[in-house]
Write a structure and sequence with these properties.
The complex is a heterodimer.
Chain A lengths: L2 H19 L3 E4 L4 H13 L8 E2 L8 H13 L4 E2 L15 H20 L3 E3 L16 E4 L27 E4 L7 H11 L13 E2 L12 E2 L5 H10 L17 H7 L4
Parallel strand pairs in A: 1-2, 1-4, 2-3, 4-6
Antiparallel strand pairs in A: 5-6, 7-8
Helix pairs in contact in A: 1-2, 5-6
Chain B lengths: L1 E6 L5 H11 L7 H12 L13 H6 L6 E6 L4 E6 L7 H8 L4 E7 L6 H13 L3 E7 L8 H17 L6 E4 L23 H6 L14 E7 L6 E5 L5 E2 L3 E5 L3 E9 L8 E2 L4 E6 L10 E4 L5 E12 L5 E2 L3 E6 L2 E15 L4 E3 L3 E2 L4 E14 L10 E5 L4 E8 L7 H4 L15 H8 L4 E6 L6 H14 L4 E5 H6 L9 H20 L3 E5 L5 H11 L3 E7 L2 H7 L4 H6 L21 E4 L5 H16 L4
Helix pairs in contact in B: 10-16, 12-13
The chains are: A alpha/beta, B alpha/beta.
Chain lengths: ~260, ~625
């Protein structure tokens, strides 16, 4: 078993636990590289099937390439897609800085979808290496009645025993990619031949390393044109992955505040 | 390789992590400046700990609340660092981090020496099953880089670790803040010539021994998305190949592996530890989540009772008699804490008896379930030998299994011959009862050695015989000379001894006789099996006397020999006695004389067995 095999086996185990233990389950599909890997892992876990809906919380501000990708792979992967639109920015917390406020629309959209469909488990493709606050997450992470995350008192989780039971009115976030790193994701994409949106590949000396809404996501300098070149670039770079995501560092605790109130 | 860093609060864990990152060139661009800016805003000197203490609240309080993970690489390989909080309040987070590690770094502040958490964490690492350990004596500059101070701490700590069963691979003097003996040798401590921390880490191996253990594959789920019925699960240990015959425990069903299924990959022919797989089998068996598949010649132990050493994380204390949910891999069953045997004090390396276990304490308990479980001893298999307890929502405890004094019940419940058919008698129980004047049945005496079982049994037999009853006593020592002459006194042999007596007694009862058995028969599970063998004719009679009374009587001198250590496992002294929960009759021989006791049994027999024509 090599490193990628181990990562895959761990994710498959987590997805199968979630499917067995949680009755109303959905997977977030942001159309980015990580969530494509996550859909792929679900097909590995369930032998070609994705036995729960995938949910795209639509800000209506994604790149056109991303919508095209979504419409193609919903069919090719035989996915049960839920694509509800987010509420307007006026409904978000006005005390947040502007980019974070824009991102907070997604939190609200997610909250609405959870209420509308009655989900009690949401699979999300966050990774520990993306951001220091996410590094503290559990694999099965409970959320309060309004979706908030009590990071000061998280339940213990060890030996691959997850806290899978939850009180009524709350829901679980399940994080099957928590133990992966950015370069693991790309190496797995290369090994398995998983499709990704073309925005990740360089055009005119720029490429997107992380994809979000058009107005708060910026490309980085790069000439990496293929998955292999991206891997080679990541092996040497020391720039952080989310450098192009404005909302993370407007203020020192902007991202922590977003997450505490329910952001992915 | 996954490394956990533990140690007493403020002994410099986060600083060590920052330094490791810096020295190995693993820091992302801008991170150093970001931390510098944070420190300047707070008007304090540069603080490495901010790298991992990313939470606002941690930055303000200056302690690590939760476990976090980050990555660095040496020229040899990639590492994941799990930073675990040292503060006592956050021990559940320390365990969450440490349980996933292949190796541990234990940090000690040279100026403060060994503290409470240095001991507790070491005790926990041992319980978690982490074997590869490096001790770093940090902040050596605070003791002027003095070799004798280092030696004193080293000797004291190595001695302590030895007593709890840990042999550290390295003990390294270091100054994490400045990088001395982290990646590079220290000029200030030329007297230390052994490995730096990075060199010590690089010398460790990732654990690979699970492949050599017997196969264990717990069923996680059974899928029927299409025409295949796929049994899904993760191989914990051993190897599984297409064509292997599997035994599923505790249902004791067996079938052959037909295929190992896969999507977007060639169907594998075999699978090993860590792999999440799906198999199809050659028979239509009803199998559920929680069963453990093994090979037939190396099955797990079957039991409904075991000893566990656990760490308790619940807010409310664990209570003797308390009911919890046990999770053992994918199996989940209700259990009762039958006994709290001891609570450990890692500081004093002592244990004391208790009826409850407070938060963050480590204790030895006996757990009992109604359902049969498939388990292993923790020393035999680190995966199926460990369990967690929950309250139905959150994980409250984790523990390691010991089967000391408890038998494997597998062969007691397994019928080996399959081509047997029961033949019906032409004489009914009613006809027998009419002839004898009473129904048949078993008077199953149970109680401590010296409680009076044999004495009362023999007197009851004599008097019932005089009154015209068909009666016979099966006594411990007598049976062991013949029927059970091939059995010793191991837990398994004791259980088999009782199983045979139960079956023989059932035959006696079936023939219309009253049989009195006089065996300590300390385990409820054994007595329950004897009850199942005899059916409605089974009457459990508890011959009850306090241990003190029995020890004072000591008719065969056995207690004296047990106390002196001459007899190893003696019920009531060094082995458990499980009193009946609902005996049909209890005879208190502390207060009743032999004659009164006999009279009570006789009255019971007259009430329940006499058949008037």
């Amino acid at each position: 078993m090599d490193h990628l095999d181990w990562l895959e086996a761990q994710s498959v185990y987590i997805l199968r636990e979630a499917f067995n233990r949680i009755d109303k389950l959905a997977m977030l599909w942001s159309l980015g590289k990580d969530s494509n890997v996550m859909v792929w892992l679900a097909k590995k876990a369930f032998f070609g099937h994705v036995p729960f809906p995938v949910m795209h919380i639509d800000t209506e501000k994604k790149f056109p390439e991303m919508y095209a990708f979504r419409d193609r792979y919903v069919r090719e992967w035989n996915l049960n897609l839920i694509a509800d639109k987010c509420p307007p920015v006026e409904e978000t917390d006005p005390s947040l800085p502007p980019a974070a406020r824009s991102a907070a629309r997604k939190t609200l959209g997610l909250k609405n979808a959870i209420a509308k469909y009655g989900f009690n488990g949401i699979i999300a493709g966050i990774r520990r290496d993306e951001e220091a606050v996410r590094a503290k997450e559990r694999v099965f992470s409970p959320r309060g009645e309004s979706g908030q995350w009590d990071f000061r008192d998280q339940p213990p989780e060890f030996w691959d025993y997850f806290n899978t039971d939850l009180p009524p009115g709350t829901h679980l976030r399940v994080h099957p990619l928590l133990h992966w790193t950015e370069i693991d994701i790309w190496r797995y994409i290369a090994r398995e031949g998983i499709p990704v949106v073309e925005l990740y590949f360089a055009r005119n000396g720029k490429r997107y390393r992380s994809l979000g809404d058009q107005d708060i996501t910026f490309p980085v300098d790069s000439n990496a044109n293929t998955v292999e070149e991206i891997i080679a670039e990541l092996e040497t770079t020391r720039a952080p992955e989310r450098a192009g995501r404005a909302m993370d560092r407007e203020t020192e605790d902007a991202f922590e505040r977003l997450r505490a109130t329910g952001y992915m | 390789m996954r490394i956990v860093i533990v140690g007493h609060v403020d002994h410099g864990k986060s600083t060590l992590v920052g330094r490791l990152f810096h020295d190995t060139g693993s820091l992302p661009d801008g991170k150093l400046e970001q931390i510098q800016a944070m420190c300047e805003r707070r008007g304090m000197p540069f603080e490495w700990a901010f790298l991992m203490d990313a939470f606002q609240s941690e930055r303000d309080q200056g302690i690590t609340i939760d476990t976090a993970q980050i990555w660095f690489k040496t020229p040899k390989r990639d590492y994941t660092i799990i930073d675990a909080p040292g503060h006592r309040e956050f021990i559940k987070n320390m365990i969450t981090g440490a349980a996933a590690a292949d190796a541990a770094i234990m940090l000690i502040d040279a100026s403060q020496g060994i503290q409470q958490q240095s001991r507790t964490h070491a005790f926990l690492l041992n319980l978690l099953g982490i074997q590869q350990i490096i001790v770093v004596v940090n902040k050596m500059d605070l003791v002027d880089c003095d070799e004798s101070r280092f030696d004193a701490i080293k000797n004291e700590y190595v001695r302590y670790l030895g007593e709890i069963g840990i042999a550290p691979s390295f003990v390294i003097p270091a100054i994490a803040r400045d990088g001395d003996n982290i990646m590079h040798r220290s000029d200030r401590m030329g007297w230390y010539r052994n490995a730096t921390l990075v060199a010590a880490l690089d010398s460790f191996r990732s654990s690979g021994e699970l492949a050599h253990l017997p196969l264990r594959l717990p069923i996680q789920d059974v899928y029927k998305f299409d025409d295949r019925r796929i049994i899904a699960g993760r191989v914990l240990s051993g190897r599984l190949r297409v064509g292997d015959r599997l035994l599923f425990s505790p249902s004791n069903k067996s079938a052959r592996v037909k295929t190992i299924e896969a999507w977007h990959a060639a169907a594998p022919q075999e699978a090993g530890p860590g792999e999440s797989i799906g198999i199809t089998i050659d028979e239509q068996l009803f199998l559920e989540r929680g069963e453990i598949a093994s090979h037939e010649d190396e099955p797990p132990i079957e039991t409904n009772v075991f000893r566990g050493r656990l760490f308790w994380l619940g807010r409310a204390p664990l209570q003797q008699g308390g009911a919890y949910r046990l999770r053992l891999q994918t199996r989940e069953v209700p259990v009762i804490v039958e006994r709290v045997e001891a609570v450990h004090d890692p500081d004093a390396l002592s244990q004391c008896p208790a009826e409850r276990v407070e938060r963050n304490e480590i204790a030895d308990v006996v757990l009992r379930s109604y359902a049969m479980l498939a388990v292993d001893e923790a020393t035999q298999n680190p995966k199926t030998g460990r369990f967690v307890l929950t309250d139905g929502a959150n994980i409250l405890a984790g523990g390691a299994i010991s089967m000391r004094d408890y038998p494997d019940q597998r062969r007691l419940v397994t019928v080996k011959s399959t081509n047997i058919t029961a033949v019906a008698h032409r004489i009914t129980a009613e006809q027998r009862a009419l002839r004898h004047g009473h129904t048949g049945g078993v008077l199953w005496f149970t109680g401590l050695s010296g409680a009076g079982k044999s004495t009362i049994a023999m007197a009851v037999e004599q008097e019932l015989f005089r009154r015209g009853y068909q009666v016979y006593v099966l006594d411990g020592d007598n049976v062991r000379h013949g029927l059970n002459a091939n059995l010793g006194f191991s837990p398994e042999d004791r259980a088999e001894n009782i199983r045979r007596v139960g079956e023989v007694a059932a035959l006696f009862a079936d023939s219309g006789q009253i049989v009195v058995t006089a065996f300590i028969s300390p385990y409820r599970a054994d007595r329950r099996r004897a009850r199942q063998a005899a059916g409605n004719g089974f009457h459990e009679i508890y011959i009850k006397a306090s241990l003190a009374t029995c020890e004072q009587r000591d008719p065969k001198g056995l207690y004296r020999r047990a106390r002196s250590g001459e007899i190893a496992e003696f019920t009531g002294v060094t082995a458990p006695y499980e009193a009946p929960e609902a005996a049909e009759l209890t005879i208190e021989t502390d207060s009743l004389s032999v004659d009164e006791s006999v009279a009570a049994v006789l009255a019971y027999v007259e009430r329940n067995f006499r058949k008037t024509r």
